[in-house]
Amino acid sequence: MPRHMNRRKRRGVSTRCVSALALALVLAWVFMITHLLSQEPTPAPTPEKPHTHTGRKNHTKKHHRRHKKKKRTPAPTASPTNELKAAHCWPFNRQGRYVKNTIQKPVNKWRRFRVGPRKDLENFVAPMLKKLGLLQTKYMDWNVYVGLQFKPDYEKNYLVAPEGALITSIPGLKEVFGDKEAFARLWSNCAQQVASLPITDGEKQKICSFTRPAINAVHKMTDVGPQLAVEGGAQAFFDIVDTPSAWIVKPQRRYLSLGMHLAVLRESDAASLDTLASWLSKEVPVEEKLPHYRTKQPGEFTLQQYVARPARLDKRKFDLRVWVLITSLEPLTVFMLDVAFPKISVVDYTAWDFPANASTVNEKCMHVQLMAAEVCVKKINARHMYPYQYPGVTRPDVHGKVGGRSFFENLRLDDNDLLGGEEAWREWQERLWPELEALIMRPLLLAKPALHKHEARIYGEFDGDLSRKYHRVALVSPDVIYDADAKTWTLEEINTNGLFQLGVDDGGSSFHVDEGYTEAWLQMSGVDEFPNSHKYQKILEERLNDFCESEGCTEWEKSVLMRSAHATAHVNSGWYRVWPPYDCGQECGPRSTLEKDAGLRALHERTASPLAKKHWTFLRKLDRTAGLLGGDGEY
Hey, how many other C-beta atoms are within 10 angstroms of the C-beta on 313? Predict the structure, then answer.
């Protein structure tokens, strides 16, 4: 008999065993359910009393009590007057024009975006674009790219952008006035640019006073060691210096005021070219002494004359960050946010006699380090950093920690007494803000010829078919300071890669809060294809056709005029068109307008193409009929 026939037959599991096992599982399940139902329910955690887990490490009541932060009591602020209580943001009423907390829009699968590699773009702008209905992609199938200005090494990105796309970068913007050395060159070449303009010498001087005198100084390596070279020659610097004067020495590749220091130029230092060269060699280092202040390119610095008598908020020096949106270079179309963001020193400014008295020359927290720099906060009591509520914006109708009421109540334009809330607000409307508008536009108009050359270099020709295949916009953020001696504003620099996020709206940890400003400029740029255009499209087309019948327009010119009209119709959250100047009639009150500025008009007309002239005329015609297109006071 075969061997396998002798093996014992394997037995299976009996039905009785299976039934017993199933019964045991059912009884266990019933017991567990009964036990859970008999327990007291655990209350849900609440903001007032955080939920804790008994016995778990770092989650005991003792731990929470030990690290509980005390609520800070803000410094008292004077009661607002009736005029400040009723004040609306100027120049337009903001009621009903916010886009903050916009609901999620339906996803448009045909509208995709990419953002640049920076935290504010990835963590703030990208979620906002998703909220507007766009899909994020990592490939080249995007319609919208929001990022930094392209560096020269990455200019090929301009040539590979998809047709009809939107890019937040304009060729040459950083190289013409965004870099510190470029901004200094724009000032040094200004006199030559305006020499042939048909305006008075006073108007020419006003154009070139958009910033204080500045030069570039670079250490170059030679056979005998590093030698200092002044751009334009030492004689050019010698001709512009006054004594005594203070100069702020800025590393050209650093930000957040890192590596900056003040240098005082006395009469003995400017006695001759040799003494001036010796002073420059001493004050312009080959590299910073402290390792964490050293630049990526050691020895490259820009010297800019320092504003020794700035406006103050009570006793604190401050400057302002302004947001400006360029939606088109040709024709030039510029929008401006109608509020600025103060950056205030954490120490009192006691150097009104500076630089004659140079005892405070090394006080960086007083002169250079604004906006609560870490090195300065360590030296003071952080609980009482400011003697008033921090004014996050220049709006008197916003109260609280980031409100702007305290800005006007503590504004001091010179060494005299405070202006007072109502007087400061009136001065702001009638003089200070219009002067700020004109100041911003001067370097933009001065830079147009150079920007045209950059575009022609990249695309082969200026305003050709290749450059017209997609749209380019740019958000720039100038820093301005009020000069008490000149009694007007002056530009410190123009940031072309500034932060896209002002702050976090978390109820108290940020000095500045974004009240829909970023979402607004994205919509004005056309990231979601102007969603409100259906409300006025038919009337706008009729007006555009009537205009083009009398003026003559090509199809390309029609599309440019239409896009500018859409951008103007979608302004909200405080944005408004500053160039071509918005024709607001009596709404603007007793103030000067940019169209009456002879210098700006002369700069505009020297490079104005036929399209730019049609653009100016058409938009201002629409301004005068505001309300007829949109039905809500905005067209």
Answer: 24
Taking alpha carbons only, the member of 619, 596, 600 closest to residue 448 is: 600
More confident residue, 537 or 81: 537
Q: Closest by alpha carbon to 267, among 350, 183, 156, 358?
A: 358
CA distances from 522 to 100, 237, 415, 495, 604 (A): 13, 42, 41, 18, 26
Q: What is the pLDDT of residues 441-479, one digit of tens each?
A: 999 999 999 999 999 998 888 777 888 888 999 999 999
pLDDT in tens, 388-398: 888 888 887 65
Instruction: Give the type of residue at 67.
Output: H
pTM of the model: 0.82
Nearest by Cα to 257 from 369, 372, 179, 379:
369
Q: Sorting pLDDT into bands at 50, 70 and 90, what band is 305?
A: very high
How far, in Å, CA of 392 to CA of 404, rounded?
6
Q: How far lies 173's CA from each of 78, 258, 428, 465, 495, in Å?
A: 44, 23, 30, 21, 10
Alpha-carbon dihedral 507, 572, 133, 164, rounded to 10 degrees:
-140
Q: Which amino acid is at 7?
A: R
List, as one string, the DSSP characters of 445-457: HHHHHHHHHHHHH
CA 92 to chain centre: 21
